[in-house]
Each structure stands twice: as C-alpha cells, then as structure tokens.
Design a protein that fits this description.
This protein has three helices and nine strands. By secondary structure, it is of the alpha+beta class. It has a four-stranded antiparallel beta sheet with strand order 6-3-8-9, with no helix packed on it. Helix 1 packs antiparallel against helix 2 (68-90), helix 1 packs parallel to helix 3 (96-166) and helix 2 (68-90) runs antiparallel to helix 3 (96-166). It is rod-shaped. The N and C termini lie far apart (182 Å).
Amino acid sequence: MNNKRTLVIAIISLLVLGLVVVSYFLIVKSSENKEMAALFELEKEEMENEYSTFANQYEELQVKINNDSLQVKLEREQQKTLRLLEELRQTKSTNAAEIARLKKELRTVRAVMRSYIIQIDSLNQLNEALTKENKKVRAQYREAAQQMTKLSEEKEELNQKVALAAQLDATNIRLVMKNKRGKETDKLKRATKLAIDFTVAKNPTAPTGERNIYMRLVKPNGEVLSKGDYTFDYENKKLAYSVRKYIEYTGEEQQVTIYWDVEEFLSPGQYAVYLFSDGNMIGSQEFNLE
C-alpha cells in the first residue's frame, strides 16, 4: 500500500516538474517571439524611413538638374520607390518572406540612387568646367572685341590724319578791290570787282587732278553773296557758295584768283572769305572794307 502511494506521489511530482519545465519554455519562447516581433517592427520602420528618404532625394535631384532625359529617369525611379514604400507599409512585420523581398529591393534602390548621384556629380563637374570655359571664352571675346574697337579707332584716327594730311591748304588769302578800269581801289563804293587771291600749298600726299574750290563771300550782316541758288555738301548739310573755281592740282604750290563781280550795293564793314574743297574748309580770312 505504501509502495503504491509512493509511486503515485513520484508520478505526480514528475508531471508537476514536467509542467513547470514546459511552462518555462513556453514563457521563454513567448518572450523571444515578442522580442523578435519588436525587432521585425523596428526593421520595417527603418526600411520605411529609408524608402521615404530615397523618394525625397529623387525629387530634390530633379529640381537641381537641367536635363530633361535624366529628369524623366529620376521621376520613374521616384515612382518605383514610392510604390515599394507603399507595399512595405501594407506588409505585416511578421511576413518574413515579403520583408526579405522588400529589403532586397531596397538594396537595389540604394545602388541605383548611388549611381545617379555619381552621374549627376559628373554632370555638375562637367557643367562647372563648361561654365568656366564659357566665362573664359566670353572674356576672350570681350578682350578681342575691345582690341578690335581699339584697332578700329586707331584706324579711324589714322584715316583722319591721312585725310587731313591729304587735303588742300589755302594760305596768303588776300582780297583786292578793283574799279571799272581794273585798277586797285581802297574804296568799296568804287569797286566793280573783288579779286580774292590765295596760294594752294604744296602737298605731295594730296591726290592730283581736277579740283573744285568753293568760295563763300560773307557780308557784314552774315548773308552769303550769291548770284543763284548754288550749294555744295559740307558736313552733311548744304551750304550756299558765291563762286566755284576749277583748278588742276599738281601737288605743287600754285596761285589761284577768284573774282566776284560787284552788281549789288555793298555796305562797308567786316567781310569774310571761306574756301572749301573736297568737303573740307581749306582756308578763311576776314577783311574790313570801307
């Protein structure tokens, strides 16, 4: 009887011990499962953050570049990243297979992002180099343009000097009043002819040949003596002249006389003679006639 009782007690003890052991292992397993679930949830959250960061980076890259083809590719990768992010959000942290697949996709997204950053960095460096080169070319162009302007100005100045050196020069201008007998007189009221004498100076640089010399004889009141509507071109305007004289210029010094027949009343006062040729004023002189 005692032996049976002892056996029963032993069996009950073993069962209790087994139950305790099983309970312990169940508790440990449950704790491990909770810890694993927490780890899976944390990993999923980290993946979501990384996907979201990549999506934002794609958007930022699109703004920073000025390349339509590359912008289209970046937008396509951004949409793919957003789609994977949404799939991850819809996946339970306990779905190990799906989490593993999305983790693999994340590695691909990370690698693609890295390749685009390298590509854009290369483009930026190239653009920077091109910008520097463009600035250098523009600076060289400005320098060349300034040099051309300077040369043009120097050429124009030289042309003006050459033109000035080549123009005729009238010197020793004299006005002689003559009476009706052709004799000199000192009285204006007796004068029937005014003789304007001058010397065309020697100038080897001036072209030879036939030249027109225009004389403007100006009265004290500023009017130009003229026997008709005669004009010539001077500094982009028309000037009236009194007499035109043709000469054959040889490059050597020569004497020229231009006559004005007095057919009108001439009041005493300050008269002026202006001589022009080839669009230039070649001499002038004032006379007091009484």
